[in-house]
Give the backbone structure.
Amino acid sequence: MNRRRHANLVPVAALVKWVVVAFFLCTAGLCYVYFKNQMQTTGNDIRGLETRLNELRMDDDRERAQINRLSSQSYLERRLQEGFIQLTPITDDHIVRLHMAATRTPADATADIDGADQLSQDPNRIVAQ
Amino acid sequence: MTHSAKVRALIACCALALVFTGFSARLVQLQVTEHEKWADWAHEKHGTRQTIYAQRGLIMDINQQTLADNEPARMVIADDSMITDPDDAAAVMAGPLGMSETDLLAKLTSGRRYIVIKKGVPEDLAEQLDTRLAVRSIRGITFQQDSERIYPNGTMACHVIGFINDKHNGVGIETQEDQYLSGHDGFRYTERDRSGQELVAYRGQEHAAQDGYNVRLTIDMNLQNIVETQLDAACKQYKPQKAICILMRPQTGEILAMANRPNFDPNDVRTETPDQLAANVAALKNCAITDEMEPGSTFKMVTAAGALNEHVVTPDTTIYCENGSFTYAGRSLRDDHPNGDLSVDDILIKSSNIGAAKLGISLGEQRLYSYIRAFGFGERTNILLPGEIPGLVPPPQRWSKLSITRIPMGQEVAVTPLQTITAMAAIANGGHLMMPQIIHDISDPNGGVISTFPPVEIRQIITPETAREMTAAFRGVVSARGTAVGAKVPGFDTAGKTGTAEKIDPDKPGYLSGHYIVSFCGYLPADDPAFVCLVMLDDPHTAEDQYYGGLVAAPIFSRIGAQVARYMNLVPQPDVPASSLVVTQREHD
């Protein structure tokens, strides 16, 4: 009786060990597949977002090009000639000058250069050898 | 188990072992021995090197107005390996793309996996085409992001802005600064699945594109518009072969406007074939820097400035002008209007050829030549535009006996319009020869300035005192006594010099009868000039005896000057009324 019981004993420890190993392998495999899918999904998302970003950039470029075209000298000149824009020239007797110093240039780095004497003192000036 | 059963089991096991050994051997062969081969094949099949195109930089004027821009478009790309029916694909695409079916078919069957079918395809057309291809289930055609260069101002400032085509032929800033404007394309190694979709997870090495730098010019489009409008009006009135106008700030050498006629539209020219470009070469040339011509009387400024600076004469020195006919070295030199004694000032005011010749003789060959070279003639100004020529100034060793009387009045030398205005600017600014500047700065796409172009003084040519004396004489040129009363800008103290040069006969030695290059180069306000302007017309159609620079070019200068002065907010002087422009005497150079 005791011999038979001893012979039919289930090797629990070994079984548990193999079950754990199998479970670990299965989990690892599933995780691999899951992460692989996640990478694929994220990649697709990234691609979609990049496409959308590119489209927005292109829209931006398109709008900017359109603004530049519509605000260009040539276009405004044409619209003026076609009568879509009305401009009235300002005559000299309608100009009130608040100061007599001539501000003749756009505000840029060279605006302060008024004459040759000042020019020779310009620290940014390069004299060619 | 019987013996036979054991044998059969053994045989089966051995057979299975052999089969698996065979599989294993094959696996080792695929994965180890031939790994490189199959990996390369797989990479070639699915992996691609994706080009990330850099955006070309913008060209802007001084006020940041965009002169050359990029508009989104599509580039049609074909993958030969994915196209199953090239004939069908060619038939669908040929019409909308404006290509011949034969050419398209040849491209589609070229055996390459990356075939550029057409660039710069408008987006709406690309979408329509994509739909038609999808309906016909044609695979292997993709529409990549691309951009098309556009020039919002059309012909305006076309010679300065220029263009560049796919073969890197072009003109203007587009060509000159291409290395900065073009940027650097990036790349990305990636893989695609069976349907051609990119597998983002398998992206490899990636190098971002570096967009081109933006170039900001010294050109002011408002001033350019004034110049172009007046030049158009002048061309309509006089129908010249060529017309040139340059506006420069004398203190810094900045070019504020530069226009030529004939001109072109860079939006159209960019797509022309080399043959078409060759046929259109006259319009493509920036004559302000690529054409040389005898300057005529404007060149007298060099002779007079040299003589005054060397104290050979003073402004009041009297020179006998032979009553209109002067014989030197056996040849006669004439003035259109005979003069007796003239002061040096009056020689310029009345533009006496004989007076200028005698000033040249007084100065001497070597010193005259030195001043011509000092004023920058005979060498490039080094403006940052392609194709500039140095002009032609022969050294004294090659002069004839007659040269000392002809060169002082602007014959026997060839100069560019840019050299002329640069020399005039030197007189206007007190004697400093400035290098002409066309680029203000270069900046990165985020606006960070990476390079600026400060004013460059080449040399001091004449003393400020001589410059003041020259300006006094040039004031007289624009007075009622001078040759260019029509150049007067109401309310402003104006100075300048006219030029009327006979055109050289290209076929035989001598000049063409009745064909002239007329010019006026002047500045205002005379004491502290805000700008110098050169107007030059090549062979204007005028009534007889109406071909002089003072009658043709000077009024154009006046109209431009008045508008430019208003734009620059120059304050009119109350003691220089417009009513002073009463012509009491008209003389020509």
